[in-house]
Automatic annotation (TrEMBL):
Enzyme class (EC, first level): transferase
EC number: 2.1.1.-
Name the UniProt record assigns to this protein: Cyclopropane-fatty-acyl-phospholipid synthase family protein
Taxonomic classification: Bacteria, Bacillati, Actinomycetota, Actinomycetes, Kitasatosporales
Keywords of the record: Methyltransferase, Transferase
Amino acid sequence: MADAALRLTTVAEELLGFPLPVRVRAWDGSESGPPGAPVLVVRHRRALRRLLWRPGELGLARAWVAGEIDVEGDLYAALDLLSGIIWEREEDLAPAVHPVRDPRLRTAARALLRIGGALPPPPPPPEEVRRRSGPLHTRRRDRQAISHHYDVGNGFYEQVLGPSMVYSCAYWSDGGTLEEAQRDKLDLVCRKLALQQGDRLLDVGCGWGSLAMHAAREYGAQVTGITLSREQAAYARKRIAEAGLTDRIEIRVQDYRDVRDGPYDAIASIGMAEHVGQVRYLEYAEQLLTLLRPGGRLLNHQIARRPERNEADYRLDPFIDRYVFPDGELAPLGRTVATLELAGFEVRDVESIREHYALTLRRWVANLEADWRRAVRHSSPGRARVWRLYMAACALAFEHSKIGVNQVLAVRTPHSGDSGLPLRARDWR
């Protein structure tokens, strides 16, 4: 095939109705598109067959993970230029799978068939989670989802996250490092919870133990951390033992629904509620309420999406659902606050730190790219490609306010009405 790149850009531009904003390089070495723009490299025509059978985001994601397409140049610039195309609602280009009414789509499908060939679709890359069935957010299904995301090798996360081993949004100041920003976030959480010597803290979704260690070491708290990831738990216990904090911290492999040893003085849920799901969220909030003493505080740190008119579906987009966070869900901030209050909490403070997550993600991507071979050695080529695309795309989503992240401080206010907060509550600053 001669000049495949020109044929591809012609098909894309006829379908879109405007010039393709990136340059295309095809498997035959041909190039087409605006000079100086980021280059979308189509390494194999299999990528086109993936798009024919699964048009839109999932087809592109499979080609990316398999290494059949790539970006040469600034990944963020390329994703920014393509975001209006890639992340749009999926349109069907495969008449054999679903009927297509738009004649432009039929024309594009025929052209892609001629360029890419009409062979059956390639199997999905092995990193993809198979389509699940049955009820969402059962204990078994949640364990499987958490294992897919977190049990990919602690060495991989050490490289991406850095020494802090904190896998949530950092709290930045001008000129600070990632480690300083993560330390400041952990300290902000502890101060919002007003932790004191001897307080019992429940860390729900404790990850690799970083918040538990900070709360025990700096505030003298007695911490119980729970996670569904056995690899995280083993890593956290080792860190805690090396730091001499085993008398202050207990790490359990345990579902939040099975915690029975309240009351706690404070509960932290940092980047965990996205895994709970709307079908379980009220149950989750009610469970945390019962585990708090009257006057105890909850700090819920959670990613949120923009509200939509149709609020029936909170599921993440197909790429993230299949490759990153199986069964993950993002709710609007208002729904989260309303559910916490419905459960019996009094919400006292909400802080949006959206821009902080964009900065955090860019640092994680830089850590991943700094030693690509090591990242592949600790996981797989496909897994490393998944994380690079996922984190870069999410950084742009935060920067463009497509999604946000918020810290919600809530109290189990006693019957007396005394919340325990000072009149000027934000003295934690």
